[in-house]
Amino acid sequence: MNEADSSLMAALLEAAGWESAASRDEADLVVVNTCSVREKPEHKVDSLLGELRGLKEQRRGLLIAVTGCMAQRVVGRERPRPLLLRVADILLGTRSFHHIAEAVARVRSGEGPVVIADLAEDPSPLRCTVTTERAPLRAFVPIILGCTNFCSYCIVPYVRGGERSRSVGEISREVKGLVHRGTREVTLLGQNVLAYGRDASNGTTFAGLLRALDKVEGLWRIRFTTCHPRDVSGDLVTAMAELPKVCEHIHLPIQAGTDKLLREMNRGYTTDEYLRIVDELRAGVPGIAITTDMMVGFPGESDQDLESSLGLYERIRFDAAFMFAYSPRPGTQAAQRGDQIPRKARLERLHRLIELQNRITLERNEEQAGSTVEVLVEGPAQKGEGLLAGKTRQNKQVVFSGDAKLAGRPVNVRLTEAHVWGFRGVLSAA
Question: Considering the entire predicted model, what is its pTM?
Fold first, then answer.
């Protein structure tokens, strides 16, 4: 979501006459788009702001804009961050990105720090009107803003606001515009894409949106993230199975592996219900890759809770996972609990989880070695001269030798080596 918001701000600034700088040291304006979902990203921002403060003292004309979740918190319900307030010339909240060019112009005309952070705003219509000459091969398309789940550990509902769905027509126009300018794969975004249409009164559903976008000519692949497990429906499974452009991959955060923890997290499902959903997806969508989010060290998590969770993950065998140690977020219910797990213990538990999941990921990938799959070539691999990189429909990375002219095209690749990060392969005529 942050990448999509950053792209929108970049396009708006370019439309206002700004050009991308080669480096931070050469910039007249630095935009820091922030995340508050965990503590670590905020610490990184604080460190960056310290560097920018020194740069600003050397270059008096330099402007600093801080946008996103941390900016929203400063003017919202959470405590201010003094360094942010001292360094930033502009603060834009999570639904105020479309004011970036206006805010910069106001500061340059002599106005003091500009602060805009109204969660009642809806910047999404602008995404259809702000264009660049060339669109990326793979593009992000937000379809729903905000979240109303209020998981006990999560700050997102407080800084992103309530759910607001874009119309099918508006999303379709954006996707068609992207495809016209070169995009071949879109990822539909939302804090919970499966809630799409729930705030509308016209019967719109996420599965219905997938069916509409599957008809867009020139579009090759449709992905989506992220999904709340309790909103997985039979209609979604059917759509994923029937629609040729919808990829066989779903990101389905489980977060914890015991009913006690899931209940205290306010997740709204049990382990048995989650297992049933996984079984339905694997039965209905052959070859589907299921990835997840996992958290350890939630307040009150016992040693037995950890062992039970690891046992459940071994049983499910996710293709991959984002894994985290619990991070207290001020203002959330979980942060107020008195049974916090010490940081050292949280990190030790995270290490065990990473070891387990990396083994499972490698084993899952080894099961695919020797098969031939479709890979959408993104371009040169980060390492290795003459190597190309791309993603399978299951969203797995593949690196192989090939002509650079293949970039942007789907090709068949035989998977020869499995790794935790993905595969090595060779071009195949099959």
Answer: 0.93
